[in-house]
Amino acid sequence: MPQLGSLATTLAFLTAVLAFAALAWGAYRKDRSLIHLGYRALDTVFFLVLFASALLLFLLVSRDFSVRYVADYTSRDLPLLYTISAFWAGQAGSLLFWELILSIYTVLVLWLYRKHPHLPVISAIIAGVHIFFTLLLTFLTRPFDTFPFPPPDGAGLNPLLQDPAMALHPPTLYLGYVGFTIPFAFAMAALILRKADAEWIRRTRVWTIISWLFLTTGIVLGGQWAYIELGWGGYWAWDPVENAAFLPWLTATAFLHSVMIQQAKGMLKTWNIALIALTFFFTIFGTFLTRSGVVQSVHAFAESNLGTYFLVFLGIVVIFSVYLILTRSHLLKSEASFEGILAKETSFLVNNILFLGLAFATFWGTIFPILSEAVTGNKVTVGPPFFNQVNAPIFLGVIILMGICPLIAWRRSSPGKLGRNLLVPGIVGLISFAAFFLQTHRFGVSLAYASSVFVIASILYDFAIEAKVRRSFHPEEPVPQAIWHLMRARSRKYGGYLVHLGVVIMAIGIVASNAFKQETTVKLEPGEQAEFAGFVLRYKGIEFQHEPGKVIASGTLEVQPSDHGSPSSVPLWVLRPAKVFYRTADQPHTEVDIRRIGVDDLYTILAGYQTGSDKENFATFKFLYMPGVNLIWWGFYVIIIGGLFALFGKGKPRKRKTRRATS
Amino acid sequence: MKRFLTSSLFLFVWTTVLAGAATLSDIEKQLMCMCGCGMVLSSCQCGTAEEFRTEILTKLEQGVPPDQIIQDFVARYGETVLAAPTKSGFNLTAWITPFVALILGLSALFWVVRTLAHRYRLQTVSPPPGAQHPGFRKQVDERLKDYL
Fold first, then answer.
1. Which of A577, B58, B112, B134 could form a disulfide bond with A604, CB atoms 3.0-4.6 angstroms apart?
2. Contact, A56 vs A87, CB < 8 A?
């Protein structure tokens, strides 16, 4: 049966080559039969990849250990959910999963845009990407390789990956990564066909926003997984592979902002094409980082020779994009000009420069170890202290700009007008800065908090002004109805504001949980207690639980508030941080126990234990108090709601257009 | 399991020196775990990380200054044990380049926008205030009503 899978991936590769050739030649010769052949070949690629994926899933679930991939990533005692998630846990499976998503997106494009005149070229570009991934699956990292003598059991899935967030994190991330292939293909097709107006942006807006939302979800789920599963009380470590996901997110965010200028005023055409090409480049670059072994990372797959092939593909993407942009530069001239420095257009561009600055700093920090070794022969590490120090001020700039941008007029403003608009939110921001500084005596933290308050005030102020104007035209409407109509009529704008609000909530959570985190390590014998962050934690002892494939050693802690905690009183909570000894892993796995207290978390880790006679019977715990950490996840939910509202909120039909059409 | 119990003994040592915990925390944020996980020492829970922590605490107890402890690790493992590049020599470029790039980008943006805005003002002549068509305000209001 595995041979059928190998046959399917090989056929998918050959069919992708056929699709590319037929579509490219057919588009060039305007030969409809060739184009039709190309479309059907892409459909066939989809069915072949779907078959291969279903087969791999079947082999995983049926624990066919004659297949190397199944033996490497599953075992007989692995729960079903993680057996399924083993599909994308390893190199070959994750590449097949990538190709599966690309195939699904491809048939969606073929169906949704079946009447679009650019479709042959768009699908030829997508077919080119298919060729690359099916080539990897056919010749370099084969998911259906078999053992001559199957082992009795598999090696099992890495315990760190046995978490529900980890089961969802890679698929959402891949849905985001792969999604950017579609706007890239549309943009390149527009250049090839010399029709570089805003049509491709209008058509791909939904793809861009959905991909961005998936990428955001993937990144946040990754953070949640790290927070819960890695057992160190953090959610972002600036690991090279985390950075690899963050890079396309940054450039895509810049793109989402700058396309508004092209749609509104026909400006920044070259810039937008370059941004989407850069975003696509970074999605492949991220995959290259994970699979090449060029950087050391907790996420990296096994070192392999795939890096060279990814580098070649990246080179092709760069040459192809740069060539098209340079040769079509005359088609990318702006239809309007900047009319003043103080204008919304400029603020969008400053936003773009800041996002690109963040992307550059992150990229630079990620590749600096390689650069340093090449230049000086010295290996260095670029870790969190670097990224926090370099990126924090730029992030602060982005936040402040989020407060200023909504209040600047289009075309041209003046310092006086801008000052008047910023007066109320500015005063709110300054007062909050003074209040935070008096309370915390920390300049950076106060500035970050005050900037966030400034953004919220700015959004509310803009909202209040527009609601007031609307009510002047529709005085019969009650205020809530006026606000709802306003939001529906301008769903893109208010969806965007909701996203900004979510980002600010996240920023507050990030600053609070880093700046005011409390932590301690204590050694307790059974019956002993420790005071920490306003709580008394009493250690009761270690309990062992035997489950299939693992032994769980959990330390029981009874928690009470410090002010009324006596040994006899009933505990408020019982926490059980644990060490899990998997049969298939050398090192024990840390299972933290977290108690949510409003927006804060009490985070407990069983760092070690010893059982024996009285003096040798102890456990060592690490306790963390994480203020505001849940704001990060709440902010994320607001971002998703805002993104969906911007995408699907029904804007009021513009009567103006109707009138013009009628006249 | 045995290996784990042994590593717990290391934990015993560092929990007895809680007075030095703040300094331990400072130092472990500046060092990487060298087990191959690629994580900062403060984030890693493996046996190697625990051995590092024990060594740091022992040295702190002996009165070794934090800088010297870090230098001892650098002498043993090379600069790669540091969580961030030093701010000297070629490594300084790691710190400076992002800000130089950002400043260059913002300067270029300012220059381009100013030039284009200046050119635009030379090419266009704005009508004097109040010179609009008498029905202009009404038209604006109608459009605003549609928009909002």
1. A577
2. yes
Please tell me whether residue A541 adopts helix, strand or coil conformation.
strand
* Option in A386, A620, A655 nearest B85 (CB): A386
Task: Give me the CATH code for the B2-84 domain, please.
Answer: 1.10.8
Instruction: Classify residue A571 by its DSSP letter.
Output: P
Taking the Cβ of residue B103 and every Cβ of chain A, the question of whether any pair is shorter than 8 Å is answered with no
Strand order in the sheet with A593-597: A518-524, A618-626, A600-610, A593-597
Question: Do the chains contact at B38 and A364, CB–CB below 8 Å?
Answer: no
- Residue A52, token pair as written in the block: 């291969």
* Beta carbons of B44 and A232 less than 8 Å apart: yes
* Minimum Cα–Cα distance from A397: chain B residue: B102
Listed in sequence order, the residues at least 6 apart from A384 whose beta carbon sits closer than 8 Å to its beta carbon are: A237, A238, B29, B40, B83, B84
Domain parsing of chain A, residue ranges = 1-162, 414-516+631-652, 518-626
| Cβ–Cβ contact A463 with B under 8 A | no
Tell me the mean pLDDT per 10 residues along chain A, length 663.
90 96 92 93 96 94 90 87 88 92 96 90 95 93 87 81 81 93 94 85 89 94 87 84 91 92 83 93 87 60 73 94 91 77 87 94 91 87 91 94 86 81 92 93 92 94 86 82 83 91 95 90 87 90 86 90 66 88 78 92 88 76 92 95 85 46 37
List A552's β-bridge partners, or say none: A545, A580
CA distance linking residue A492 with residue B147, whole number of Å: 13
Query: Which of A:576-615 have CB within 8 Å of B?
Result: 579, 581, 587-588, 590, 605, 607-610
ipTM computed for the complex: 0.80
Phi, then psi, of A83 in degrees rounded to 5: -65, -40
Q: Which residues of chain B does A378 touch, with a Cβ-Cβ cutoff of 8 Å?
A: 78-79, 90
Q: Are A537 and A624 in contact (CB under 8 A)?
A: no
State whether residue A353 sits within 8 Å of chain B by CB. yes
- Give chain A's end-to-end CA distance (angstroms, integer): 67
Structure tokens at A179: 């999604």
The pLDDT tens digits of the residues spanning B119-142 come to 877 777 655 555 556 666 666 666
Tokens 């053992």 -> residue: A147
Query: What residue type is A66 in one-letter code?
Result: S
Joined together, the tokens standing for residue A568 give 């006899």
Closest CA to A145 of A99, A96, A77: A96
Cα–Cα dist A513/A517, whole Å? 5
Say yes or no: A230 contacts chain B, CB-CB below 8 A.
yes
Residue B103 to residue B91: CA distance in whole angstroms: 20
Q: Confirm or reject contact between B23 and chain A (CB < 8 A).
A: no
Within 10 Å of residue A395's Cβ, how many Cβ atoms?
18
How many CA atoms within 13 Å lie on the side-chain side of A94?
Answer: 21
pLDDT digits (tens, 9 = 90+) for B10-58: 444 444 444 444 477 788 888 998 887 778 888 777 778 888 888 888 8
Domains of chain B, residue spans: 2-84, 87-124
Q: Which residue reads 């305007």 in tokens?
A: A30
Q: How far is B42 from chain A (nearest CA, A)?
A: 8
Compute the half-sphere exposure of residue A186: CA atoms within 13 Å on the CB side of its CA.
23
Cβ within 8 Å of residue B115, ≥6 positions away:
none
Query: How crowded is the C-beta side of A119, counted as CA atoms within 13 Å?
Result: 18
**Residue in chain B nearest A297 by alpha carbon:** B38
**Is A379 near chain B, with CB under 8 Å?**
yes
Considering only CB atoms, B105 lies closest to which of A340, A356, A620, namely A356
